[in-house]
Specification:
Strand order of the largest sheet: 1-3-2-4-5
Number of domains: 1
CATH architecture: 3-Layer(aba) Sandwich
CATH class: Alpha Beta
CATH topology: Glutaredoxin
Distance between the termini: 48 Å
Strand content: 5-15%
Shape: globular
Radius of gyration: 16 Å
Number of helices: 8
Helix content: 40-55%
Structural class: alpha+beta
Oligomer: single chain
């Protein structure tokens, strides 16, 4: 049986397995599939922060991994680093560190970020190769493909794929019960 998702809805609902900022039950849930070496994903970091500022508690932001390994050779390692940091409750700190210089991701820089964040080096090194983390990343990739993800960044708003421009105003206008606000305030 061949699986096809013709509606381009999010196949895997948001849950506690995800890395999220905000309440999972928020009225607006923004899921972003990312690649840590993608320059467009790095640009989207600021846009998402603006959305978070603008929407406050009404927004839950979720990150899922989608490393484009054919284009970005360190993307999988960076995703693993984020997961290893998550094991020490530092996912978001590592997430933002990895996006500071996405074109300069290397093993040396990844360990530099870990030290800078005060992570336990031995534990981080062990977790960097942990199969549990790889399974989490692989599940993100698999469900991303099943949801129609083929590039990064890819956004879903309340489970529905967003195809518009990814700037603050366009994303705000696409969000339920919020669209007119963006036109009035930007």
């Amino acid at each position: 049986m061949i699986f096809t998702n013709t509606t381009l809805d999010l196949v895997l609902p948001v849950g506690t397995r995800d890395h999220s900022q905000g309440m999972l039950a928020a009225p607006i849930v923004l899921v972003e599939y990312i690649d840590y070496q993608c320059p467009y994903c790095a640009q989207a970091v600021g846009i998402v922060r603006e959305l978070q500022y603008e929407l406050g508690e009404r927004l839950c932001y979720v990150v899922r991994h989608f490393p484009l390994i054919d284009l970005h050779f360190q993307a999988m390692r960076a995703a693993s680093a984020a997961e290893a940091a998550a094991a020490q409750n530092q996912f978001w700190q590592m997430h933002y560190s990895l996006f500071e210089f996405p074109s300069a991701l290397s093993e040396t820089n990844i360990f530099h970020y870990a030290r800078k964040l005060g992570l336990d080096s031995d534990l981080f090194d062990r977790d960097l190769n942990n199969q549990h983390h790889f399974r989490h990343i692989e599940e993100d990739i698999k469900t991303g493909i099943e949801s129609g993800v083929d590039s990064t960044p890819t956004f879903f708003i309340n489970g529905i794929r967003y195809f518009g421009n990814w700037d603050t105003v366009s994303l705000l206008n696409a969000m339920p019960h919020h669209g007119s606000y963006a036109n009035e305030h930007y």
